[in-house]
Design brief:
Largest sheet: 9 strands, mixed
Helix content: 40-55%
Mean pLDDT: 93
Low-confidence stretches: none
Radius of gyration: 17 Å
Strand order of the largest sheet: 1-2-3-5-4-6-7-8-9
Number of strands: 9
Structural class: alpha/beta
CATH superfamily: Alpha/Beta hydrolase fold, catalytic domain
CATH topology: Rossmann fold
Number of helices: 7
Order of helices and strands: EEEEHEHHEHEHEHEH
CATH class: Alpha Beta
Strand content: 25-35%
Shape: globular
Number of domains: 1
Length: 242
């Protein structure tokens, strides 16, 4: 990990870095006197575009006494484009625009290669972050593309709890892998999200092997997440990471 910038603002230290060749941002409490837990902040890609929302989430984590970190997705932002994924994404968008459900084949071609690339990068980031003296764990994963969160929660034993947003397409193979997830889960579902298959989201929730899993379903579309939903997620992490 190579830090490229640092700034201090209202009790938060924000540092940009490269993890290998993957750009990311780390936020830590300026006043911490001992190693703190960590929340990994997922997002749908485009780190600069997502920055305002990521900053708000990171500040809430720091207010809980945690560090927060994120990295750019494969093919996102300024990272090299992935032509096969772009083609699958274009096919998916055409289907949605026509009022049709994308086929399982298109969803697989878009999501599974992204998961295969992204999860090892998150794990490499976790390796590097846990070597820093300011971070001691435990670790939570929050938000982003839910298929990445499921794979990471199933494969990465250092993640103690996950808050997931059921707002993206999920391959059937990921639903099967969800049975391997046993950590505490907080799952958010926007009930009227026209771009999300509600029944598939419910099937995914049912498939999780966790004995502690909570589904928070709110009325409204994809971007209509109520403000209190973020606070509920923060309380979930406070309960499980402290």
């Amino acid at each position: 990990m190579h830090f490229t910038s640092e700034r201090h603002d209202d009790g938060v230290i924000e540092r940009e870095f490269l993890s290998g060749d993957v750009p990311g941002i780390l936020w830590t409490p300026a006043s911490a006197s001992e190693p703190v837990p960590l929340v990994l902040l997922g997002h749908p890609g485009g780190l600069r575009r997502m920055y305002p929302r990521l900053l708000a989430r990171a500040r809430r984590s720091v207010a809980s006494g945690f560090a927060a970190a994120t990295i750019e997705l494969p093919g996102g932002g300024d990272r090299p484009a992935l032509p096969d994924l772009e083609q699958a994404r274009a096919e998916l968008r055409r289907a949605v625009a026509a009022g049709e459900r994308p086929t399982d084949e298109v969803i697989d071609r878009l999501v599974l290669p992204l998961v295969d690339r992204a999860v090892p990068e998150w794990q490499a980031l976790l390796d590097a972050l846990l070597e820093l003296p300011a971070i001691g764990g435990p670790v939570g994963y929050s938000g982003g593309i839910i298929a990445i969160g499921v794979r990471l929660a199933a494969m990465e034993p250092r993640i103690a709890a996950a808050g997931l947003f059921a707002g993206s397409f999920v391959p059937r193979a990921i639903i099967e892998q969800a049975r391997e997830v046993t950590i505490p889960l907080h799952v958010l579902l926007q009930w009227d999200d026209v771009d999300n298959d509600r029944q598939l989201a419910l099937d995914l929730f049912d498939a999780f092997g966790s004995t502690e899993k909570t589904l928070h379903a709110n009325m409204g579309g994809h971007t209509g997440v109520p403000q209190f939903a973020g606070e509920d997620a923060a309380v979930f992490f406070e309960r499980h990471l402290r």
